[in-house]
Automatic annotation (TrEMBL):
Transmembrane segments: none annotated. PROSITE patterns: PIWI. It comes from Rhizophagus irregularis. Gene3D superfamilies: 3.40.50.2300, paz domain, Ribonuclease H-like superfamily/Ribonuclease H. This is Piwi domain-containing protein.
Length: 903
């Protein structure tokens, strides 16, 4: 059977599983028991005792009175444009621009139909849901649930004919009544169901606290919880600007509600003339935009422009616009025929139409084709288009220079972060003034919480034990625990001109690197690699294959490692070249690679920089850099543990594929890990559909590794770890139950199928970084509670007050933040057969943060989870499109004996 047919069958199988899992809640057997809820009470009081007690501040404000109204009524609201020639975004439920328009329409409606809204407090989510404190006026008088307002006009928002835009509004009362009293039972731990994570009462409260900011035209709404200040923007070049704002949401705590507020940032398109945007984004080194754009450039441009909303400058003062479908290639401009109306029989060439209709000449001959609701053909010259303000530059790749600008501008020091949090709550949300109108009272001060600081973990090297200081140590006079295979056959390829990267300088760098590797205990032959210069432009993967073949010819055997020196992050080919190298070397050739950026040239003589590279190279060659004390990884019962990390990453393109990875430890000191990955159809869900398959592969690799290490006979049975601890990343609270219900039984099934009678005890936990909780020391000058940057000390744990009222969760700041405010990781234990105490689990989780093998500092999440994240990122580079189908190749068989190749 051909590879293509195999891939098709696999894809069909995965789609069947996806359909099964997506319909799972609806087809669930009524006799099937619900997923058990592991509560805090099953761990005593659920609070840790180990560590030095301190008090910290949290970026949350306690709600002292929720509302004087106990009931809210729910209405469905439809807002549709009457005119055809206005933005289609009003119909898009999740469009930020559409939400802003719908809010303006509702506000206009409330003023025009004052009797409907008299003595009614309402909250609107910007979509199709309206919450009210009592029935609307028409509902009271006519005793009907639905009403239609045939026309609402927005005077300062014109359609393409220059007239005020008109909308039809339909409001329909639903039978749902939301009881806020349910929240008190929830936060007091009296009741809990998985569905409470998406409870409608919280939707009501979130819509209320966002009302003031999102109705103010001074601010830009993004998503359901973020507001950005139009006046607080910074240009980061390339037609992109950074906008600072605030995230806010209502969170349940223990016995109280809290409003979590966090300064945040995002990127927006600058509201430029489209021609100027193209110039800044794609042709900054040119004097003018070229009329002839090649196919490669056109593809890149359309990736950025597709879906962008622009308004016509030739029809000023019109404020509405259209979304771009694509930039037309020069050859297509001549063939494109303008069809002014769907029923029109006459069509015009573009340039002639604009010359005759508007007396305008398109100087650049570049046109964009626009999206329409019908089959009307519309295209505008780029110089007559202006980007409408407030559109996120999301799902687009930023350049290295832009990312650097963001780090400089948005990495707030803890003291600044704290100030901005208070400012956002006071000025934007206006929490002190009951902006909700329902009698909500909020403490204006940051909440204070009891916390603990637990000790760091020793890190073992060959003959030496390092004692981290605030999560950090160094490699001076230290040798790795185990050297990888002896490095004899290696090669250096430079994708840069020799004038920018002189050969003599590279020779010195390689000498420094080799000496540093030897000083860390690695085995390296005295012969030094050959150095080769190549050009990448327009050659794609073939130039990487050429580099490998040249190295093989020079060495007269396959190289073990090729070091690639690639252009810096400011180069337009930096990311593409890096991804091409990894895809070709990992999946097509099967040779280890190490990329070095030209930007690092200033560090070529630095022992520390060379030591960091040595750590990566040793891991790739099969070595182990450091280990943790065995007693720290064994359970109190003395049982060994298989540590698992798992993650799922989703594509930016809705037609792409999700990638999932599972990583497992190979030894009892968690020094080596094996990683397995696969793709699956994008579904918006977080379940790893075939996690059982990946777990079986990990168990097989574990046994093979133990046999090689122990040098046992092939027929001898390897003892499998009696316990498994899973650290699962990438799961939102609303999907806890789905993921647990799907993945835990699959892990058990994989163990039983791998070996009859193998039924390990399992802890299934979720660890997350994508949250907005931050913790601050009460006294940033006190070195017993704060580090030199003003962050809380490494090892700070919060498991009281702001944590979940029922589930067993905690926040752990396990790393030192060189820049900005440290973000603690959020752990939730969803299942536990092992019955650890909360102190034991917290200590074990903290310990695993000290064993990320390519670092000399503790990291923010346990090493297995970090490796799973890296694997997803690497596998994403492997995705290949062939004949319209997307598939994910396997790592080449040559890398089977190098499990840490991805480091």
């Amino acid at each position: 059977m051909s590879n293509e047919r195999v891939r098709r069958r696999v894809n069909e199988k995965v789609k069947e599983k996806l359909k099964e899992i997506e319909t799972q809640p609806e087809i669930r057997d009524p006799n099937e028991p619900p997923v058990p809820i592991l509560t805090r009470k099953e761990y005593g009081d659920g609070y840790g005792k180990v560590g030095r007690h301190v008090e910290v501040k949290v970026n949350s404000f306690e709600v002292t009175n929720i509302s004087k109204y106990n009931k809210f009524f729910k209405y469905n609201i439809e807002i549709n444009p009457i005119d055809k020639d206005i933005e289609v975004d009003v119909k898009r439920e999740r469009s930020d621009y559409g939400k802003s328009i719908r809010r303006r329409v509702l506000k206009e409606l409330s003023l025009e139909m004052e009797d409907w809204f008299h003595k009614v407090v309402y909250a609107y989510d910007g979509g199709s849901t309206l919450y009210t404190t009592s029935y609307l006026g028409f509902d009271k008088v006519k005793d009907v649930k639905a009403v239609v307002k045939e026309e609402i006009s927005i005077a300062n928002l014109q359609n393409l004919d220059g007239e005020p835009t008109r909308y039809k509004v339909i409001i329909n009362r639903l039978d749902t009544i939301i009881e806020l009293t349910q929240i008190n039972k929830y936060i007091n731990g009296e009741e809990f169901e998985w569905e409470f994570f998406s409870d409608e009462a919280f939707n009501v409260l979130n819509s209320l606290i966002h009302k003031v900011g999102m109705e103010n035209e001074k601010y830009i709404q993004s998503g359901n919880s973020s507001i950005y200040n139009k006046e607080n923007k910074k240009n980061i070049n390339g037609g992109v600007e950074l906008c600072l704002g605030w995230f806010s949401t209502v969170r349940p705590g223990q016995g109280s509600l809290f409003i979590n507020v966090n300064p945040t940032y995002t990127t927006f398109y600058q509201p430029l003339n489209l021609e100027e945007f193209l110039f800044q984004c794609f042709f900054p080194k040119y004097q003018n935009i070229p009329n002839e754009i090649n196919a490669f450039q056109l593809k890149k441009i359309n990736e950025i422009l597709k879906g962008l909303l622009v308004k016509p400058l030739h029809l000023e003062p019109i404020q509405t616009g259209r979304r771009i479908r694509r930039l037309l290639a020069a050859t297509k401009v001549n063939r494109f025929r303008y069809k002014p109306r769907a029923d029109s029989e006459e069509t015009f060439p573009l340039e002639r139409y604009f010359r005759e209709r508007y007396k305008l000449k398109a100087s650049s001959r570049l046109f964009v084709e626009l999206m329409t609701d019908d089959d009307t053909s519309i295209a505008w010259p780029v110089e007559f288009c202006k980007i409408i303000e407030g559109q996120r530059y999301s799902n687009k790749k930023l350049s290295g220079k832009q990312r650097g600008e963001i780090i400089l501008l948005a990495k707030f020091k803890p003291s600044i972060n704290e100030q901005e949090t208070i400012r956002g709550a006071k000025e934007i949300l206006q929490l002190q003034n009951d902006p909700t109108g329902v009698g909500m009272k909020v403490d204006p001060n940051l909440a204070k919480v009891d916390a603990r600081v637990i000790k760091s973990t020793d890190v073992k090297y060959a003959g030496k034990i390092m004692k981290p200081n605030n999560g950090q140590w160094n490699l001076k006079d230290v040798k790795f625990v185990e050297s990888g295979e002896r490095l004899e056959f290696w090669h250096v390829v430079i994708f840069e001109q020799s004038k920018w990267m002189p050969k003599g300088e590279v020779i010195n760098f390689i000498e420094n690197l080799a000496r540093q590797c030897e000083s860390q205990g690695m085995s390296i032959a005295r012969n030094r690699p050959e150095i080769q210069y190549l050009q990448y432009y327009n050659k794609g993967p073939n130039v990487v294959k050429q580099a490998y073949e040249d190295a093989r010819d020079i060495l007269r055997r396959p190289p073990q490692l090729i070091i690639f020196i690639i252009p810096g992050e400011k180069s337009p080919i930096n990311t593409e070249l890096y991804e091409t190298i990894k895809r070709v070397m990992d999946t097509e050739i099967g040779c280890l690679s190490q990329c070095v950026s030209v930007d690092s040239r200033k560090n070529f003589r630095s022992p520390q920089y060379c030591a960091n590279l040595a750590m990566k190279i040793n891991l790739k060659l099969g070595g182990v850099n450091s280990i943790l004390p065995e007693d720290k990884l064994r359970l109190p019962s003395g049982e060994e543990v298989l540590f698992l990390g798992a993650d799922v990453t989703h594509p930016k393109d809705k037609n792409g594929k999700s990638i999932c990875a599972v990583v497992g430890s190979l030894d009892n000191q968690a020094g080596r890990f094996i990683t397995k990955y696969q793709d699956q159809e994008r579904s918006g869900k977080e379940e790893i559909l075939e996690i059982d398959k990946l777990i079986k592969e990990i168990l097989r690799e574990y046994c093979d590794y133990q046999k090689r290490r122990s040098r046992v006979k092939n027929n001898e049975v390897i003892t499998l770890p009696p316990c498994i601890i899973m650290y699962r990343d990438g799961v939102s609270e609303s999907q806890f139950e789905r993921v647990l219900r799907w993945e835990l039984p699959k892990i058990r099934e994989a163990c039983r199928l791998f070996r009859q009678g193998y039924e390990p005890k399992i802890i299934f936990s979720v660890v997350g970084k994508r949250h907005h909780t931050r913790i601050f020391p009460v006294d940033p000058k006190n070195r017993m509670e704060a580090d030199k940057n003003g962050n809380c000390l490494v090892g700070t744990i919060v498991d009281k007050k702001i944590t979940h009222p029922t589930l067993n969760d905690f926040y752990l700041q396990s790393h030192f933040a060189n820049q900005g405010t440290a973000r603690p990781s959020h752990y939730t234990i969803l299942h536990d057969d092992i019955k650890l105490t909360i102190d034991e689990f917290q200590g074990l989780s903290n310990t695993l943060c000290y064993n990320f093998q390519r670092s000399t500092s503790s990291v923010s999440i346990p090493a297995p989870t970090y490796y799973a994240h890296l694997t997803c990122a690497r596998a994403k580079m492997y995705l290949t499109t062939h004949r319209g189908n997307i598939y994910l190749p396997n790592v080449h068989r040559n890398l089977k004996n190098y499990p840490m190749y991805f480091m």
